[in-house]
């Protein structure tokens, strides 16, 4: 048993991937190193600042835009300077398991190594076969970023990764709602709401709320079922469970109950309840409490509030602060801009390197007020995210405000890149599976047998595997002579079971949900794709 993590102090936990498709995995594990790609870059050991790394990245990749350059700069700065010896690092593996190590050395550049293997950090691998089943979903979700280098900073991640490295199961979030875990079915939720007083309503995260129904994402059919179940029992959630991230807090109330002695409903009393967390009270205000019973229930959509960064207060300076304060924060954090807030938390303006430069050109002694840009765009948390994409890419950011017009978040182009990159990944994966199935079926199975696998009224429309639905492959390859024609040395029943699981996953993708697909949910499709790549390695 390892005893490396007593007194963990300031230890941090990171993820450093071994390439987009795990191509550096064998070297990382075999040589005890962390590896960053970016092979066009030379030795960065002597580059001490973000600006220096940014200049090197821009020179090495002249065709990339400012947002990509900034994103890559941040990852490389973390890899070279922020990751410290003694920190823990997680390496997701192609086997769908996880390796965990402890960083033992600083940044090195191996000029003689092959491309992609030159930027390294020494690491001692403590365990290389952690089963994802032992990791709780919130930590797995945090590991699901498309970035190569990023920190696991939420929900007590460092201590939890340390426990996994010691061979223990994930202990879960330190702030986890143990009571929520007991709400294993809707009937228990109803009883708990009924048992509580109106002044102490049940509050829990949307993630835990969905878990009562045994689901992880808000598909239309799922949300419709939950809404109907709640309505049948006279329950409501404030704010609506269809808004916010999975970790947003909601209150579950007896919305149809009679008014109390003061003549007010439980919903109206919500805003003044001292039993609610500040997060729920703010969200309730932002939602305007609830619409009338006959009003249309808000649809699940890509809201601004669905982005984590829209719910995280950005670093800022206040009116009257020194300009040197803003500049120091921007250099330390690698920011391009900072909001300047009024004493009440509302936006006064934004200070950026460009605005500082312009102000100092006009007056070398210019202060913060002179360098502050007035009138930057502000999005409401409930706005449709798609309406703000153009503004974010045009200016690089959009500030987010709550119902009181106080700043509560900041969306950057990098946030959008990660958000939509995460959403595109499952579709790309399923598309490759379909392309490989089409190719091998067209090559090995005659057209007449393809037509025999579909209903008669559709047979004449089938001219190749491209005309088959995904579900038709299961029917086609169930037939012994068709399976034999593939000449694959794998088990037919296991393959067909994996194909059916992937079909269900593909169908779920076609139904809109504002929630990201987790690595665990991707696992069956990833496994099927790896199998297809093995039996049919042609590109």
Walkthrough of the structure:
By secondary structure, this protein is of the alpha+beta class. The chain has four domains: 153 residues, ph1033 like fold (Roll), CATH 3.10.590; 121 residues, no CATH class; 98 residues, CBS-domain (Roll), CATH 3.10.580.10; 120 residues, no CATH class. The N terminus is likely disordered. The protein is globular, with a radius of gyration of 27 Å. It starts with 12 loop residues before the first strand and ends with a helix. α11 links the parallel β10 and β11. The longest helix is centred in the C-terminal third of the chain and has 32 residues. The chain is built from 20 helices and 16 strands. The strands form four sheets. Strands 2-5-4-3-1-6 form a six-stranded mixed sheet.
